């Protein structure tokens, strides 16, 4: 035995399992008098948020929640959602944040799959949750304890479904003396479900160590200062808000809550509360770009936005730059805790013209500093593709910012981790500076006459037309070419454009075979986080092709 292995073991004085719960305790201790949460007329300091979270933890413990119990929450971006991110992990329990846009059967399926012991639900969602709980009971034989949240900022009816009201439950329990976290940092902290576009959704299980490290990465990647004022435009149910509930706690910042994501409400909150950071999918940034300029008056602070959730169109990045918002482009998936790569801005980029800056910032970039590996590999041989900006492969990750695996799905877990890498399914190239640039999802590449067409490239061209608000390009079956691109377009309010004009616009920017053969002006289906649901559009395209 080496001398360095003698009498030098782990003990309470020199080792603590990593958990983001520790950030809450520190901010309550050091910054207890500073603002932590703003929600309408409600205001809480860090000392108050810590106490409320500790009361919730005590209440959940009294209801039988313990290590690796699951607590599901059906909540918008409210103080209760913030507190759930602190209280549930403090019990070493597992947080399951439900997508507020899902229907009752899928909500019931998810709660049964993760074996939810407790459900915390906002009264706004009582109609869908009542049906979900009925299905959960009648079809799955499962009935979690239900806690109702009656948010004062919700103007509608407050129908109760459970035996407990959130505020009454907090008042009935003394706070735990300390929010401790797990004994083992590899323990699960959350289970988040993928969209389930093919078959049942998969439950992505993440751990305390990864959540802690990604929260730190967020701050370091974005060079966030102490005491940021962070606006919740990103749903906290999406990848646990990309770990930002814990990042804001680490920095002693202020959570500015927002029940509804609307341009007017976003810009009002930025002006009223001095918001300087927010995260969102491209569609939300587009809302800000296209809002009446008068709504941005009075916002004098530098506002920094983080964009992910879908490959951002170049026109969006350029548009944000023109209105003075500083945008950082990150990339990731639920399986890597949200963002795990970033287009790190180099000082030399500032000397480039706006168009080149937009191109550089539009790349998916390089791995987060605490992620051990990210590159583009051949999906079968796992050989790294040359850094030539031309050879396509699949983006793959490895390291501490990768999920534990898929809940109750060992086959899917093994497939995702084949060869010691997490396979994302995103096709990309490695550019000469080793920054990654996505070309498409593997299922979104259009193969027309033997030529590969990137739907993202065609969408970028469409977004450069001033009348286009949102667009998506998918494959349509074609008897001659196999597939041809069809574009679905939503136009900006007050703007008009014809299909012929958009085709001509694309012809000026793209090779002829990449130009959409058809433009359809139709509503584009989106998830609650603003991601376009291309699988629905592919079904539309196939159906219309069969009819015709």
Automatic annotation (TrEMBL):
One of its GO terms (molecular function) is ligase activity. Gene3D superfamilies: 3.30.300.30, N-terminal domain of ligase-like. Keywords: Fatty acid metabolism, Ligase, Lipid metabolism. It holds the Pfam family AMP-binding_C. Residues 457-531 form the AMP-binding enzyme C-terminal domain. GO terms for biological process: fatty acid metabolic process. Residues 25-407 form the AMP-dependent synthetase/ligase domain. InterPro entries: AMP-bd_C, AMP-bd_C_sf, AMP-binding_CS, AMP-dep_synth/lig_dom, ANL_N_sf. Belongs to the ATP-dependent AMP-binding enzyme family. This is Acyl-CoA synthetase. It comes from Rubrivivax rivuli. The lineage of its organism: Bacteria, Pseudomonadati, Pseudomonadota, Betaproteobacteria, Burkholderiales.
């Amino acid at each position: 035995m080496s001398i360095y292995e003698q009498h030098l073991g782990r003990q309470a004085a020199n080792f603590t399992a990593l958990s983001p719960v520790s950030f809450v305790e520190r901010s309550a201790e050091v910054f207890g008098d500073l603002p932590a949460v703003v929600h309408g007329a409600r205001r809480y300091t860090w000392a108050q948020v810590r106490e409320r979270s500790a009361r919730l933890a005590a209440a959940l413990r009294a209801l039988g929640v313990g290590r690796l119990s699951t607590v599901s929450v059906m909540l918008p971006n409210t103080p209760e959602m913030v507190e759930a991110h602190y209280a549930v992990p403090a019990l070493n329990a597992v947080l399951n944040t439900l997508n507020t846009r899902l229907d009752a059967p899928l909500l019931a399926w998810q709660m049964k799959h993760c074996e939810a012991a407790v459900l915390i639900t906002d009264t706004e969602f009582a109609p869908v949750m009542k049906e979900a709980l009925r299905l959960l009971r009648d079809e799955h034989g499962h009935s979690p304890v239900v806690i109702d949240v009656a948010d004062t900022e919700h103007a509608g009816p407050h129908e109760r479904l459970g035996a407990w009201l959130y505020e009454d439950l907090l008042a009935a329990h003394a706070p735990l003396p300390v929010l401790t976290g797990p004994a083992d940092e590899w323990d699960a902290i959350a289970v988040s479900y993928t969209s389930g576009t093919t078959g049942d959704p998969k439950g992505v299980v993440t751990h305390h160590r990864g959540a802690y490290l990604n929260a730190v990465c967020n701050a370091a990647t974005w060079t966030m200062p102490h005491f940021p004022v962070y606006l919740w435009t990103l749903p906290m149910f999406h990848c646990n808000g990309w770990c930002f509930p814990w990042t804001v706690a680490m920095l002693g910042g202020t959570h500015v809550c927002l029940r509804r994501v609307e341009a007017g409400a976003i810009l009002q909150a930025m002006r009223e509360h001095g918001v300087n950071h927010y995260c969102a999918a491209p569609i939300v940034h587009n809302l800000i770009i296209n809002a009446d300029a008068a709504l941005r008056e009075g916002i004098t602070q530098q506002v920094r936005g983080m964009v992910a959730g879908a490959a951002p169109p170049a026109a969006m990045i350029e548009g944000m730059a023109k209105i003075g918002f500083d945008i950082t482009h990150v990339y990731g998936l639920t399986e890597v805790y949200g963002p795990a790569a970033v287009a790190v801005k180099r000082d030399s980029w500032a000397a480039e013209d706006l168009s080149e800056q937009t191109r550089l910032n539009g790349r998916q970039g390089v791995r987060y500093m605490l992620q051990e590996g990210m590159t583009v590999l051949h999906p079968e041989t796992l050989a790294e593709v040359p850094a030539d900006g031309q050879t396509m492969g699949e983006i793959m990750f490895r390291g501490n910012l990768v999920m534990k695996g898929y809940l109750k799905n060992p086959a899917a877990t093994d497939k995702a981790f084949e060869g010691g890498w997490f396979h994302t399914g995103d096709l990309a190239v490695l550019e000469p500076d080793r920054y990654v640039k996505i070309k498409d999802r593997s299922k979104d590449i259009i193969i027309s006459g033997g030529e590969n067409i990137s739907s993202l490239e065609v969408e970028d061209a469409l977004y450069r037309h001033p009348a286009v608000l949102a667009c998506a390009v998918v494959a349509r079956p074609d008897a001659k070419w196999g597939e041809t691109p069809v574009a679905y377009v939503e136009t900006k309010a007050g703007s008009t454009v014809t299909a012929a004009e958009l085709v001509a616009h694309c012809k000026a920017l793209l090779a002829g075979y990449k130009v959409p053969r058809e433009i359809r002006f139709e509503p584009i289906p989106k998830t609650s986080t603003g991601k376009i649901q291309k699988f629905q559009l592919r079904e539309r395209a196939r159906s219309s092709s069969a009819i015709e």
